[in-house]
Amino acid sequence: MAQQIPIDPQARADDPAADAARGDQTHALAPDLAYRRLVLVNVVFVGEPGAGDRGWVLVDAGIPGSAPAIRAAAEARFGQGARPAAIVLTHGHFDHVGVLETLAREWDAPVYAHALERPYLDGSAAYPAPDPSVGGGLMARIAPLYPTSPVDVSDRLKILPADGSVPPMPGWRWLHTPGHSVGHVSFWREADGSLIVGDAFVTTAQESAYAVATQAPELHGPPMYLTLDWPAAAASVRALAALKPERAITGHGRPLEGPELRRGLDALAQDFERVAVPEGGRYVEHPARAADGSAYRAP
Length: 299
Description:
Radius of gyration: 18 Å
Strand order of the largest sheet: 2-3-4-5-6-7-8
Number of strands: 14
Oligomer: single chain
Distance between the termini: 33 Å
Helix content: 10-25%
CATH architecture: 4-Layer Sandwich
CATH topology: Metallo-beta-lactamase, Chain A
Mean pLDDT: 92
Structural class: alpha/beta
């Protein structure tokens, strides 16, 4: 049975009092790094407050219906009418691209993603079906209801460069962290030890509706019901732990920082197979991978 790595609540990376005083509807992790929680997923804003038009980047694009909340946070943080330089994706699952088509069109913004995610973003392939048999919580049981169909932003889609750079995010590098999806990436800024990890690991038991609601900080592997390749997921977590990050913002749960983050991430990496991997399940027994085409279904 998969387990959690408990985390001291004091390790949370945001400051609720400072966030409330700033009043831009986001939670800040660093002067130019903030996030907003949208029901069950986080979106990330990269850029200094007041950065203005094209002076910032949106990482991931929320759940369906979240466009007004993302717009409001962007305008409050960056200025009236401030559009992003780009929308950058960790991966293309429904809760990370819910309003991607809407915002990319409205903002006339390019969309950056890994080459292996392209079929999910140009309308040509759907994700494999979720596995409701793993995780045990309500969020896992209702996983068959989650959309797996692709979006189509082919006219704006740009593939992340092979050299690891992120053109609209100077100072950041992308790292291929597959497992949860074949083209999943995380973003790393070595200068201050900041990580944006998407769903490579998360800080809440995403399978559980109660945990999603309470947001008690815990280290977990990627959400089980949508993870396609557990050996790849384990390797990704170990690569991220080796970076010894100062702070990490995940797609689900509260951001963490400092020694407690590193302790928890090391524990998760060292014991991933026992702590994070379900005892059985469709993708434990038969991983879905890009190499053999099993990660892509007809839309």
